[in-house]
Specification:
The structure is a single chain. By secondary structure, this protein is mainly α. Helices cover about 75% and strands about 0% of the residues. α2 packs parallel to α8, α7 packs antiparallel against α8 and α12 runs parallel beside α14.
Length: about 425
């Protein structure tokens, strides 16, 4: 394992890198990559856009329903065991997908993939990373999420596999890669053990020379969290924003193919542009998130998504559509590391797996409804214009909820013995 091969490196960064690699494979295969088989599946089976989109909605919703249970499993079994199990289940699901002959089999395989990717994906890595970082938490989480973003760059290669070997052959290859490479990286994803000799964040002293205090694992209970104003408003905002961003990601390639008559190769390359700008958003938001109010940064991410969607609605050329995509991308990317960083800052890491899982259940409802509803509107109108305008309106509604998501009160923090701890809406580095 890498921590034994690199004893001089802070193990938290090894966890970040390993989780990023697993997320990269999941993002390339399940999140971005399935857009490359969308049209092929419709052409082979004659299903409607809405019926096919429903499978992707099921993936989001089943993953969300599974998330709280996976979060509890993480808190009880540890991140490593859950990550390994998720990798295996994901690989099996993709292999089953390559053998489908009926739409119910399509849905069933997608649900297996949803459970596996939910266990092996970002949630398990975020829980582990939250235990290794405090002052650098948002930045560390942003580095991990780059893996998911880089996965989008591989879509061009996946599209080439689909064109060369067919969508079934491409899925079989992806299954084998996940099973072999994924397990190797999952072995290095673990929660920080009590009494670990390396200092928190890998930093031995503050800039002013003060030594870093020993790591203290604290946290509010799920019941306390779900009663808090910050959690309620944050969840509503994430649900609404996820509606819009997931609709764009799932329908980006078919939108370019159907409305603008772009070839699959060129449409697939647009995902690479989306990914690069998404990475910029992830790193930028992660850097800013350790220095400024995270709820303001989340609202800013919503503004970018809102600004890009009308451009997609009125686009009459590939160039114009690309402009809209490149505006949406950093907003989508920036929201990914800030969400879990807010949760850990506000509510602690002791029960972070469970809390993050419940949040995923709430917010992925938007990701489930968005692609299906936009697909239904395409079937009804024959184009994506109305779907993009609806997504813009919903993204606009998310912004005020992020601004209203204030941190827990001092009374709530006293209840968990962390009155002056990091559950505040300012940089953690200023809270010591």
């Amino acid at each position: 394992m890498l921590r034994r091969a690199l004893p001089g490196v802070y193990e938290g960064w090894i966890v970040v890198g390993s989780a990023a690699c697993v997320v990269l494979m999941i993002g390339a295969s399940f999140f971005y990559g399935f857009g490359t088989i969308f049209t092929e599946v419709i052409d082979e089976f004659g299903w409607s856009v809405a019926a096919t989109s429903l499978a992707f909605s099921l993936r989001s919703e089943v993953g969300g329903v599974a998330a709280p249970f996976i979060g509890v499993a993480i808190d009880r079994l540890g991140t490593q065991k859950v990550a390994l199990g998720g990798v295996v289940v994901s690989a099996v699901g993709v292999l089953l997908m390559s053998e489908i002959q009926a739409i119910w089999q399509f849905y069933a395989a997608m649900m297996v993939i949803a459970i596996g990717s939910s266990a092996a994906g970002g949630s398990v890595g975020l829980v582990a990373i939250a235990s290794w970082f405090e002052a650098r938490r948002a930045f560390a989480m942003s580095i991990m999420t780059i893996g998911g973003g880089v996965g989008g760059l591989l879509v061009v290669g996946i599209a080439a596999l689909v064109e060369e070997f067919g969508w079934r052959g491409a899925l079989r290859a992806l299954s084998l890669i996940m099973l072999t490479v994924g397990i190797a990286f999952a072995l290095d994803i673990r929660t920080r053990p009590e009494g670990h000799p390396q200092p928190m964040d890998g930093v031995r002293a503050h800039p002013d020379g003060r030594p870093v205090a020993p790591a203290v694992r604290w946290g509010m209970t799920l019941r306390q969290v779900m009663r808090s104003r910050g959690f309620i408003f944050m969840s509503i905002g994430l649900l609404l924003l996820n509606f819009s961003t997931t609709a764009v990601i799932i329908h980006q390639i078919p939108y370019l193919e159907r409305d603008l008559h772009i070839s699959k190769a060129v449409a697939g390359s647009s995902v690479a542009y989306f990914t690069v700008f998404s990475i910029v958003g992830r790193v930028g938001a992660g850097y800013l998130g350790d220095r400024f109010s995270k709820r303001v940064i989340m609202a800013g991410c919503g503004v970018l998504v809102l600004a890009g969607l009308p451009i997609l609605a009125i686009a009459d050329s590939y160039l114009t559509a690309t402009l809209g995509i490149l505006i949406i991308a950093p907003g989508f990317g920036g929201s990914i590391p800030i969400r879990p960083a807010m949760l850990a800052d506000y509510f602690g890491t002791k029960f972070f797996g469970t809390i993050n899982g419940v949040t995923a259940l709430v917010t992925t409802t938007g990701g489930a409804v968005g692609p299906w509803l936009v697909g239904w509107m395409v079937d009804s109108t024959g184009h994506y214009r109305a779907g993009w305008w609806l997504s813009a309106a919903i993204a606009a509604a998310a912004i005020p909820f992020f601004l209203l998501a204030s941190p827990p009160s001092a009374e709530d923090r006293r209840a968990v013995g962390r009155e002056d701890g990091p559950a505040v809406d300012r940089p953690i580095v200023d809270a010591h």
